[in-house]
Design brief:
Two copies of one chain form a homodimer.
Chain A: E1 4-9, H1 13-24, H2 26-33, E2 37-43, E3 57-59, H3 63-67, E4 73-76, H4 83-93, E5 97-100, H5 103-120, E6 124-125, H6 136-143, E7 149-155, H7 158-170, H8 174-184, H9 192-195, H10 198-212, E8 222-223, H11 231-239, E9 242-253, E10 256-267, E11 279-286, E12 290-297, H12 301-317, E13 346-356, H13 361-371, E14 376-381, E15 390-397, E16 400-401, H14 402-413, E17 423-427
Parallel strand pairs in A: 1-2, 1-4, 2-3, 4-5, 5-6, 8-10, 10-17
Antiparallel strand pairs in A: 7-9, 7-11, 9-10, 11-12, 13-15, 13-16, 13-17, 14-15
């Protein structure tokens, strides 16, 4: 069989991982692909000492790889959204198939990129953009194709999950774990992407588009980070039988689609509640299959390379006929699904209210909540810690619209006995 | 786009599920497939009241469906391995693509069937044959294609997992739970397939072939059922921090490939140890991606239909060019991988030895084990229960060949202080 020539652009962590895994397992990969898969051209500003580039054409200008007429597949691993976008569009224009691991690029510019690719009849594959080595895009777009997907929930940022896991298991403080994660190289030096939820929002955007057949709409994802998580809330959640996870949630409701990233209490008996450390997992609900879950490493050079190479082989196996798996799972987009604003979203809540230790305060708060139609599921009232006259009151509510909850919290915060901000964390049962 | 016409043979539980899910979700499925997917012909000995067959050609002789020149894809859902085999071979001969959910057929006759299909250039797809709605064949054959797979372990029989879960969670006896599972319709009236491990062995055969690129070799799977599991062992395992699961395990070693199905102690902190009830899960170890796990319903009409329809859509998306994903993942089989006999397999063990309550017995047993090169990891010695003079002695060993363990157990059982059979259950850490 005719070989497939691959050009790799970018030889950083993931580029080197892809290069080395392909080299190490090339015999099996060729047998699986049904034809030889060859890296013939690498574009990188500098060599990477981890990669033996002997016998391979190397260009300092990555656009030289796109111009190489012998290269069939351009693998974009340079990151960012400026040069990478230019590169991917140039590759499409040159009629080449593209593989990328770039979640920001796909989440923010995917609609434009896919339109260009469809016009040219080429494939842009991006399995590695979501949840690293877990074949979640393939699962949703192909494996669950029979299903109306009602929702999904994912632990899709390893650094955030590592921090929350350490806080719970070892009682450590947020800042302490974050500093360690940075030292270990899990978190970026600027941790905003991980901790503020931007990275998870990029991935959620891509998952939701594939699950529901809607365009990529990164700007409509409601995003909250984990920087305000305290040891106190982690422990109270535990007492109530819940874990706090930073989840990306997409859900189809009668009123529209929800897309949100935020810390979430989930029952500790759910399998996904037990996904700890840097591991990722995505739980998907289909009307025929029920719940399915996909678990694995969401980052790392070789885990990401695993997904990049899977895309390369998918293309290689089908090189003679254009790929017929639509870029976002559906050949015709459902453009009429409205995306809900955060105020329109209904969830249950965990509330922690610090109240002056006076008679009747509990009743007054319960009364305030019920004025806004909010019912309680569980209550813990603790004694005041030694150093403060404030009693922590922990409430779990039934599902309520965020709008009602906002109003209720404003009302509670204006009570004379409540002098501190109310802490609220969303709660999902994840049973459907 | 030209529609794809589907003929369904068999209208039992899975046949009806497939029919109904296709009908319910047809708009989305067509949009995902990029062309209309139509059931045009059903072959079934009798109608199923759950299916509205109006407007569809119905034949009492399923071979009429194969003869229908307008049908592109034959879906075999009649079960068994005689007529189903004949049907599938006839469909291949007629140049039709085939989808089947039949694990026994694929595990026992897959090599012959795939050879015929490859000669004819047609596809035989069987995602539904393993772990119901979980897209595990796709994950291994496509999603993890970059990896050298070192092993996998799966909970691949829902009935067995339900029984073991109930025994642990509610302290119920094996026979009691089995009777209930039969009443609930989880287990077959003749539960041999589930309880003796045959069903799991069929699925393991298929998983191992795809993971390692070896032919299907059902007759080489070492298979032990769960009928001898006692409440005692479930509880002792729990005390030691382990769960007992009925696992299908395939592993690639330097000496050959292991394929085995048996009750297994696994550390309770592993995610797969927490897969309870009728749910299935498959844990796969790849050299690039590390561990990944796939979880969902392993049986049931609609969960199985989900996988059947995924196969149909895969074929529909690629109908104009023959499928290039090899039937067992590799275009050339690795025929030189030896399959190990059970005596050659090395694992750790849980042993329960009932010993007469006399001085020096513990030392004598430890001495016997060490004569066979067996080291201990943990010991529990209990007081004798009221109604017997025998003390239960629980040991966890380090990994040892089964041959050595067989000899050691023979020696222990010949000690005068040991009057009962030694209970042994294999133990796997599942950390790689």
């Amino acid at each position: 069989m005719k070989p497939v020539n691959v050009g790799i652009c970018g030889l950083g962590t993931v580029g080197a991982g892809t290069f080395n895994v392909l080299k190490r397992n090339i015999d099996d990969i060729d047998r699986r692909a049904g034809r030889p898969v060859r890296i013939t051209h690498v574009g990188a500003r500098r060599d990477n000492p981890d990669c033996d580039l002997e016998g391979i054409q190397v260009s300092r200008d990555i656009f030289e790889v796109v111009k190489d007429p012998d290269v069939h597949i351009i693998v974009e691993l340079i990151g960012g959204t400026t040069v990478s976008k230019e590169l991917v569009l140039a590759a499409i224009k040159a009629g080449k198939d593209v593989v990328t691991a770039n979640k920001a690029l796909i989440a923010e510019f995917g609609n434009e990129i896919f339109a260009a690719a469809e016009q040219k009849g080429v494939v842009v594959a991006y399995e590695a953009a979501v949840a690293g080595g877990i074949p979640i895009i393939k699962a949703i777009r192909e494996g669950l194709v029979a299903n109306q997907i009602s929702g999904l929930a994912g632990i899709i940022n390893g650094t955030g999950n590592y921090i929350l896991s350490e806080m719970r298991e070892k009682g450590r403080a947020f800042d302490d774990v974050l500093a360690e994660a940075q030292a270990l190289g899990y978190a970026e030096a600027d941790p905003t992407f991980d901790v503020a939820g931007t990275d998870a929002a990029h991935k959620l955007t891509i998952l939701a588009a594939n699950a529901f057949g809607i365009p990529l709409q990164f700007d409509k994802v409601y995003t909250e980070g984990i920087a305000e998580m305290t040891q106190e809330d982690v422990q109270y959640a535990d007492e109530l039988g819940y874990r706090i996870k930073h989840l990306g949630i997409a859900r189809r409701t009668d009123h529209g689609v929800e897309m949100r990233v935020h810390p979430t209490l989930i029952p500790n008996k759910r399998l996904i509640a037990n996904v700890d450390g840097v591991m990722n997992a995505v739980l998907v609900f289909g009307d025929a299959v029920g719940p399915t879950m996909y678990y694995g490493q969401g980052a790392g050079a070789e885990a990401t390379a695993s997904a990049v190479i899977a895309d390369i082989v998918d293309i290689a196996r089908d090189i003679d006929s254009p790929g017929l798996v639509p870029h976002l799972g559906f050949s015709v987009e459902t453009k009429d699904l409205n995306v809900l604003t955060s105020e329109e979203i209904t969830t249950a809540y965990y509330l922690r209210i610090s109240v002056k230790d006076e008679v009747g305060q509990m009743a007054r708060i319960a009364d305030t909540l019920s004025q806004f139609g909010i019912n309680m599921e569980a209550i813990i009232q603790k004694e005041a810690p030694d150093d403060t006259p404030l009693v922590p009151l922990i409430l779990l509510t039934q599902p309520v619209s965020e709008k009602a909850m906002n109003s209720a919290i404003t009302a509670i915060e204006s009570l004379p006995s409540v002098t501190e901000r109310v802490v609220r964390i969303r709660l999902e049962r994840l049973d459907s």
